[in-house]
Amino acid sequence: MKNPLVSTQQIDKTTNDNLNEPSDEIKEHQHIYNEFYNLEYTRGLFGIMEPISKNWFRSEFIGFDDYPERNNQDRPLLFACNHSGMAFPWDAILLGYEINKHFNFNSHSIRALTSPMLSVSALMNPFTLDKLWKIAGGVDATFLNFEAMMYYKDHNLLIYPEGVPGIGKGFNKKYQLQEFKTSFIRMSVKYKTDIVGISTVNGEYINPYAYSSKLINRLVNKIGIPFLPIGLITPLILLQPWIFYFGFPAKLKFVLGRRYKPYEMIDKPYHEISQQEFKSIAAKVRDYMQEDLYEAVRTYTRL
Question: pTM for this one?
Answer without folding.
Answer: 0.90
